[in-house]
Amino acid sequence: QIQLVESGGGLVQPGGSLRLSCAASGFIFSNYVMSWVRQVPGKGLEWVSDIIDSGRATYYVDSVKGRFTISRDNAQNTLYLQMSSLTPGDTAVYYCAKATGPIPLAGEYDLWGQGTQVTVSS
Q1: Which of 5, 29, 9, 28 minimizes the C-alpha distance to 96?
Q2: Side-chain half-sphere CA neighbours of 82 within 13 A
Q3: How are the residues of the chain apportioned to helix, strand and coil, as percentages rounded to the nearest 5?
């Protein structure tokens, strides 16, 4: 089965850290651009970060630059998002997604995970 499964979300205090994981299966993970996208309940999707197939180039929305780090372990077919200095504005459901094409920042995806909730609150 071709799928993405996120994990690692939870409740964290402002200023805290979390690491999200996304386990991929059913395709050659190392051949594809991967992304993290988030959604606040009742609002639209917001792109957060991209990483190219090799992991050697990464891209971030301005609001998370310097705080979030996207990475991947192609040998383990796993995508990560390390989040630090979290604020209430980061509260959202976080999804990993497989990009449709080979170029990063295109904003088109053909596979999504189920999402994992991140809540930043004291």
Answers
A1: 5
A2: 7
A3: 5, 50, 45
Which structure tokens are listed for 19? 């690491």
- Token couple for 79: 């995508």
d(CA 49, CA 90): 13
Residues 122, 2: Cα–Cα separation, whole Å: 38
DSSP alpha helix (H) spans, the chain: none
Q: Nearest Cα to 114, choosing from 2, 5, 1?
A: 5
**pLDDT tens by residue, 87-120:** 999 999 999 999 999 999 999 999 999 999 999 9
The pLDDT score that the predictor gives to residue 42 is 85
